[in-house]
Amino acid sequence: MNPKKSPGSRPLSPLVSRILKTAGVVITLAALLDIVILSFPYQPLERQWQIDAVTALVDRGVVPLVGLALFLTGFWVDSNAGIAIERKQMVQDPRFWACLLASLLGLAYVLVFPLHLNNVRLEHQNAMEQVSQQVANAETELSTRLQGEIASQRQQINQLVSASDEQISQLQDSGQLTAEQAALVRRFKSDPNTIEPFLQQREQELQTQAQTEIAVRKQEIENSTKAEALKSGLRVGIGSLLLAIGFITMGWLGLRNLRQA
Q1: Residue 65: which of 259, 244, 252 has the closest Cα?
Q2: For residue 51, which of 127, 131, 106 has the smallest C-alpha distance?
Q3: What would you report as the CA-atom Rg of the chain, rounded to the nearest whole angstrom?
Q4: Angle between helices 94-161 and 62-80 (to 10 degrees)
């Protein structure tokens, strides 16, 4: 014998159906409205705006997918409970518009996939060009700064060289010169021709140190930029494809079933 249905199961079906349909409509509209608001102000020709808009579309794409699924599930509850669904023309059936919206969203996610990858690639190239420009500017500033620093050191050395040994000793005793610096000044006094080679060596050391720091910083920025571009491309790209599959499957299967009905 077939098990009897609970007396209260059938009256609950219309209530469950209405709840699912209402929740589905509210969730879907709220998600789409959220995406529209997050994209404001609209600058469709700006590459960064396109990246942000597609990211928002993908990040919130699961919500309208769930909303449409709940909405269509409400009709399935009606059918499963034996509640007759009024036969209408396809364009008058709410399920048709839900499936059409799912299909359009699926198509949108298919289209934004290559668009986002290309935008991320171009944005990464632009970021690399900016980094190269910043490094060139830093190297120019470094050269200017080193020239000024070496000129200042040359002037100080010339002043110390012109001082007497007694004055150099007094500067050393007062702590204005270290023993090493005092010995260096005395060497310059005995052989002035060693001043320029010393300054050139000092400039080369400072330049090498600064260039190493610039190169390390450049590499860190490039690695960070590359990682961000790769993460954005993979996360948004794969998410877009998965959402496209979900929406298109829901939309096309629903439309096919409606046509058969």
Answers
A1: 244
A2: 127
A3: 37
A4: 160
Q: Which two tokens stand for residue 54?
A: 């597609």
The tokens describing 79, both together, are 């059918």
At 50-98, the pLDDT tens digits run: 999 999 999 999 999 999 999 999 888 877 766 655 666 777 788 899 9
- The phi and psi torsions of 172 (rounded to 5 degrees) equal -70, -40
Angle between helices 179-190 and 195-260 (to 10 degrees): 120
Alpha carbon distance 31, 41 (integer Å): 18
Integer Cα distance of 203 and 206 in angstroms: 5
What's the sign of the alpha-carbon dihedral 132, 134, 138, 144? Answer: positive
Q: What is the pTM of this model?
A: 0.72
Chain centroid offset of residue 185 CA: 55
Question: Residue 140 corresponds to which tokens in the numbers above?
Answer: 């120019």
Could you count the other beta carbons within 10 Å of the beta carbon of residue 109? 23
